[in-house]
Amino acid sequence: MTYVVTETCIKCKYTDCVDVCPVDCFREGPNFLVIDPDECIDCTLCVAECPVEAIFAEDDVPENQRAFTALNAELAKVWKPIIERKPAPPDADEWAKKTDKRDLLER
Predict the structure, then answer these.
(1) Structural domain contains residue 74
(2) Mind listing the pLDDT tens digit for each residue in 60-91?
């Protein structure tokens, strides 16, 4: 099993999770993070660090977010690793409360 970043992360892109990942499995896009399923060791450390609760175990991804499992795998192949925490976007707190952001994902 691996962990999956879901829609809540879009346009928030807090990187607290990156600091605790022992295997550097996070990949960074313009306004979203993903987890590389081939690198993730299922340690669960990132889950508690995500301030917007966007990370789920693969088996626990909410039904309406299941597409993000494949999306994480796809984008992890093309996005670069992120290994250090960065400041969140200035409007991250505003976006954290919004839903239906899938169309805003930048590749």
Answers:
(1) yes
(2) 999 999 999 999 999 999 999 999 999 999 99
